Amino acid sequence: MSCSAATPAAELWQEIAAKKRAEVASKIPPEWRLLPSYLDKVSPTSTWNVLAVPRECGILSQDEIHITEGHDAVSLVEAIAAGTYTALQVATAFCKRAAIAQQLIIFEDALSRARDLDAYFAETGKVKGPFHGLPISLKSAESENNVFGRVLNPHKLSLGAGGSSGGEGALVAMRGSLLGVGTDIAGSIRIPALCCGVFGFKPTASRVPYGGQGSGSRPGNPGILASAGPLATSARDLRFFLENIIRAKPWDCDPTAFFLPFRDPERHSKLKLGYFRGDPSYPLHPPVARALGAAVEQLRKSGHSVEVLDQLPDLSKAVNLAFKYFDLDTAKTSFGYIAAGGEPKIASLKTSSPEPSKEPLNLDDLFAMNTARAQIIAEWQNIWLENHLDAIIMPGHRSTAVQHDKYGQPPYTVLWNLVDVTYPRPVLSNH
After folding, report:
1. 298 or 152: whose pLDDT is higher?
2. How many structural domains is the chain composed of?
């Protein structure tokens, strides 16, 4: 006869989520907490614009308001280097603002690091690297989950913030961070930028180091790779981030990064631009079409050449192929994690992703998919080279920010995750 101790029941996902919420809440000092008069108005159905709350709530001093609202990342780094602000002043201001935005920020670690930087500056009179004293936020979760709930759009709480780097987009929009890092496999940097009114850039996969990233997907993915990239309050901050990351030679310490030095190509005063007005399968809402038309008109007035591109590859073919790549994992690893934890699926999964295929894909399917992908890449390269283009102007989505769980598939962004190459600007002969 033998006996064994009873095995404790697995911890319920609700209990795990509650512990994590309590842990995060404990990081916010009491003096940085918003009054109930603010919090009671927050809901996913509210039309409240909360962008002014950091200025009105009394948590930030006037100097801290200026630090967080009067700069982009480039000018703030310059001010720190000039001794106008200490790293601790800057970190405190942005930690307060991030707390107001109710985002996950590890405050004490950030402030401790800022004190170290200030001590170094006081001793040497020099800054410690190009990002000295600049608070940079990192995407840590989806835009909706069963731990923290739903990310709300600060411009209007009843609208979605985009995803999956939606928390990053909302945080940058509220200036709880001037420069954030998201990841993008179907539009997850560009969509939050679009929805929250900030700047976002998806580099080619592996241009920004990606090692050590946690992922709910199966390792060894043979399909579309995710990219890491910046969200910011200005376009020049995007370049500032990328240039300094790449000039640091990340390939020396991270094998996921391309060995490709930063290049500063010749700049042309007059650009040749292609204009993709939208695909009939994914018609644009009037505000989007109107904004695109206004942008094209302004570019032409500035002397740039803009050519309408009407004979384009079938966008729906590319979108369907991209989502087929996302369905390659026959083990359904991501959904397995959800099932193992006993969590319900979030509602947005039903509208943003098609149903997984009933028949598992096989190696023959992968060969056929890679052949189709190569054809799409070649078709877009021909458009680029035949029209001598510097860039293409196109919609980021069919609509502007929409109600929660209504975004749907992202055809205009996932196209470029599927293509994921940088096309060269053609060299034209003078003859």
Report:
1. 298
2. 1
Bridge partners (DSSP) of residue 305 are 272
**Model pLDDT for residues 283-310, shown as the tens digit of each residue:** 999 999 999 999 999 999 999 999 999 8
pLDDT tens for 2-16 read: 444 443 445 688 888
- Work out whether strand 199-200 and strand 227-232 pair parallel, antiparallel, or are unpaired: antiparallel
Active-site residue, from 96, 139, 202, 324: 139
Catalytic site includes residue 202: no
Q: Give the count of alpha carbons within 13 A of 28, CB side only.
A: 21
Annotate 343-375 with b (16+ C-beta within 10 A) or e (fewer): beebebeeebeeeeeeeebeeeeeeebeebbee
Confidence of residue 356 (pLDDT cuts 50, 70, 90): low
Which candidate in 137, 143, 177, 188 is catalytic? 188
Q: Are 422 and 390 in contact (CB under 8 A)?
A: no
**Of residues 164, 165, 348, 352, which has the active-site annotation?**
164
Rg (CA), the chain: 23
Structure tokens at 293: 């038309």
Tens-place pLDDT, residues 383-430: 999 999 999 999 999 999 999 888 889 999 999 999 998 765 544 444
* Mean pLDDT within 359-367: 92
The CATH number of whichever domain residue 360 belongs to comes to 3.90.1300.10
Q: Is 164 an active-site residue?
A: yes
Which structural domain, as residue segments, surrounds residue 415?
272-431
Residue 280 lies in a domain: yes
Pairing of strands 144-145, 179-184: unpaired
H/E segment holding residue 125: none
Q: Is residue 397 part of a domain?
A: yes
Is residue 341 situated within a structural domain?
Answer: yes
> What stretches of 174-307 show up as alpha helix (H) in DSSP?
190-196, 235-247, 286-301
- Tally of CA atoms within 13 A in the half-sphere of 333 that contains its CB: 10
Whole-structure pTM value: 0.88
Whether 139 is catalytic is yes
Rounded to 5°, the CA angle 257-259-264 comes to 105
- Rounded to an integer, the average pLDDT of 209-229 is 86
Name 59's Cβ contacts closer than 8 Å, sequence gap at least 6.
31, 32, 34, 96, 99, 100
- Residue 236's pLDDT is 96
